[in-house]
Amino acid sequence: MTEYWKCKDGFRQLPEWESDCWIQVTQPTQEELGDLESRFGAPMDFIQDVEDTEERPRTESESGWLMTLIRVPNKEFDEDGNPVFSTIPLALLVHGQIFISICYYKTEMIDDFIRYTIRKNIEERIRYDLMLSIFLSSSVWYLKYLKQMNTMMKQAEDALEDSMENDQLQKMMRIEKFLVYFVTSMRGNEVVMVRLKKHLRHLPYDEDLLDDVEIELQQAYATANIYSEVLERQRESYSSIISNNLNVIMKRLTAITIILMIPAAVSGFFGMNVPNGMEEWNPAFALILLATAVISIIAYVFFKKRDLV
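Above: the chain's sequence. Below: its structure in token form.
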């Protein structure tokens, strides 16, 4: 889908392309890609790379095009309705009065960015300022999704305090995987930002906007690292607790097994088919039972004092 947007008190959609408008391409078809190449001379080699979900962030300059690929956050839902966080590639291309953004996925970020410009009555966002604004929006959405992950972490932690179930541990592992995606993508975006500053050095752009992008990106990156470290420490703590609980259970089972072996051992000794001097004595059976009970009680008290049962 190809849409044309012009920023005047926020972005407004246009029926056709105009100079210095934003060409927003989402989930493009081959016909739309061919139109970009024929009408605007867009570099198809770079655009086709965006389709690869594993494509790394980078920025290039070729034939007058400034081509930047960043990874932006994305949220979907699995079959059970649980959120699945990931990152996807987004291409930003600038050449003269042409600005193109291409993404093969539908994201909340772009729609929210357009609504934000309307709500704030942004007067103008074209070319490099528009590129930086989208970069800034991606950092803001990283922070939004990180807050949602933090809420999920707290819910899983509260549930684990009540019961150490595999489902809750698996949720913690899923969140840890999401954080790895975020940290890796933001690290790549930081490298792109450093290189992008060199390209923009002699071009017209809003320096304050660039500072905002760097601050938000660093904050999102630091937040993701903190959450990742906290989650790793929690996972290690829960692993230690589970291991300790298992050791306690094994000690108790061992103590109980020893106590239960006492009656079996005594009955085995006196049940042997050999003379023991008590075959004709009537109180022998009761005496053996009493001795077995006394020995078992002594063993129980012994293990109880050592907190083994």
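The longest strand covers residues 65-77.
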